[in-house]
Fold this sequence. Notes:
heterodimer, A: mainly alpha, 0% strand, B: alpha/beta, 5-stranded parallel β-sheet, two-stranded parallel sheet, 9 strands, 11% strand
Amino acid sequence: xxxxxxxxxxxxxxxxxxxxxxxxxxxxxxxxxxxxxxxxxxxxxxxxxxxxxxxxxxxxxxxxxxxxxxxxxxxxxxxxxxxxxxxxxxxxxxxxxxxxxxxxxxxxxxxxxxxxxxxxxxxxxxxxxxxxxxxxxxxxxxxxxxxxxxxxxxxxxxxxxxxxxxxxxxxxxxxxxxxxxxxxxxxxxxxxxxxxxxxxxxxxxxxxxxxxxxxxxxxxxxxxxxxxxxxxxxxxxxxxxxxxxxxxxxxxxxxxxxxxxxxxxxxxxxxxxxxxxxxxxxxxxxxxxxxxxxxxxxxxxxxxxxxxxxxxxxxxxxxxxxxxxxxxxxxxxxxxxxxxxxxxxxxxxxxxxxxxxxxxxxxxxxxxxxxxxxxxxxxxxxxxxxxxxxxxxxxxxxxxxxxxxxxxxxxxxxxxxxxxxxxxxxxxxxxxxxxxxxxxxxxxxxxxxxxxxxxxxxxxxxxxxxxxxxxxxxxxxx
Amino acid sequence: xxxxxxxxxxxxxxxxxxxxxxxxxxxxxxxxxxxxxxxxxxxxxxxxxxxxxxxxxxxxxxxxxxxxxxxxxxxxxxxxxxxxxxxxxxxxxxxxxxxxxxxxxxxxxxxxxxxxxxxxxxxxxxxxxxxxxxxxxxxxxxxxxxxxxxxxxxxxxxxxxxxxxxxxxxxxxxxxxxxxxxxxxxxxxxxxxxxxxxxxxxxxxxxxxxxxxxxxxxxxxxxxxxxxxxxxxxxxxxxxxxxxxxxxxxxxxxxxxxxxxxxxxxxxxxxxxxxxxxxxxxxxxxxxxxxxxxxxxxxxxxxxxxx
Lengths: 478, 307
């Protein structure tokens, strides 16, 4: 079941009523209801992969249980952790990366005139596998590192890992902040619920009115890139930055809003990424749950005690190569990860000098300086995303070549551009206001009537300008 | 209990205000802007101008058949209802719209057919019927066809006026701003002017499965014409691609045409056009020069229906 479907519109109110009508029976009943709803939600997409979801959840629960046992020797705990990592990441490899590596290996071996007899696997990627594996692994690693205590409450743990709003595309859960919420009985808070509804509405606006709208243009250009000149490819690339942000940001906001309705606070995933004033700042605001996960479980452990800058830089590159591969099994994502790593290194290695410069010229609170750095950051993001969106490495470089070498007349698509640009303007105004004047809000206005009218107007705009039947969320493929 | 009442009232409040806004904006559009619209659907809804020949099909219809040539040579009125990207579902809806609202029924319907009318394509099935949403309230036959998109769509269209005019108000206000809709000038023919300069390419025939729902609608199309004593001609106009392998959809059309005593002529791989890239806008559409030659070539065939 996907959020932008009619089925979900029916499912959500039923789930809400069911959950809160049984909530007085206590925490365990609440978790049973959440688990049942999540199983239904996932099974509605494909019941055949329910076993995988529940199996991984059970495995990490059991592993976490034994790793957290004080009577077990440290060496055995380490062995258990490695076993868990091998099984979980092995499953991820089989489902997501096996064919990619086989294809790449075949190309390399073929270059030397040899053949590989192995056939590609004919399997579909279970939706959300990267998300729930990372969520459950974080628990096991945290227990091992002593950051969190093992739990004996399997119901709470299952409800946490499979919690349906975050199941397909995150935000990736963390045992330290999210899991404890399932250990106690939740009580309904109307103001929280209302906030959830406002987030859901804004999430749908982002998804249907911006992401899916500009996505029509993006797809028509990137799927026929050789038919388009540099100007059209550049516009498609700019649109893609908004498509990606609004598709995933919209999903995350809907997930967080639904979480609020069930009194669960999910981790925020986006914090107005295009208001960033540096590349480091951007990665603190973009897909935060994954970035933090990779920082905590890959980057910092890799750095260890080292104080060598070269090693820090190498770790940054490796971390973002992993991030690229996490997004998809293709060389375009690897190149995208490399691009991110390189620009982050440039950014972090020049941060001190930039701060000095800002201080010397008193630029820290200068609006024009902020605008310039915001635009510069956005430009770097935009060119990087060509690798993320292009259908192949060849297409990515072809697109870059066209942008710099072959401008021309812009390919226009009336309604798509008109409503896409209106959507982007609304989005950026809201992001700007939230960033610099957070006290001003229409949707969450303190006067309830203003809030209701704003939400109603937003709903009408979604109904009028939204793209319905626009398909799945981009991050479902990851 | 109070907290549940609060959130329920909040949701009801949003829905109630949204409903009022929907009607406040939607009703004037439906009653004032839509009737002023001058596109092919509204032309059909107004009953046309007593055309004796109507041409239906997708973009290959709208760019390939020039009604003026037919009118000048045969002395019968003709209109081209070809709609970009549409398939047999839309053609059936338009046929009904024409026949339900015209006083003088056409004598001949030319239906340009291609693989998208018969095969189960990934992106050429019912989703293109969204183009009919703005006209949903005009005719029950449109409602029936649009219902192919699913009960949810029909429900949404019944519930919300704004949804029916989804992303289309900028088009609907064009007539009151004095901007002409080019859809119906040239009696529905939409000329293309580019000359294709590239070498002919080879492409395998579509190997998608036959879509039984589309076959049903093709049969309904034939049935409706028969009921109104209208003759049908199935055509497949030229393209500039060497198609390889056997076609799955053409034998189906031949069978249906044979069973119903309808002529089906396939010009898709016509040797004359396959040697003349300058007659094409791109491999799948003739330019105006190509359309002129093609339409002129059809005249003897069409004239037979008026003897």
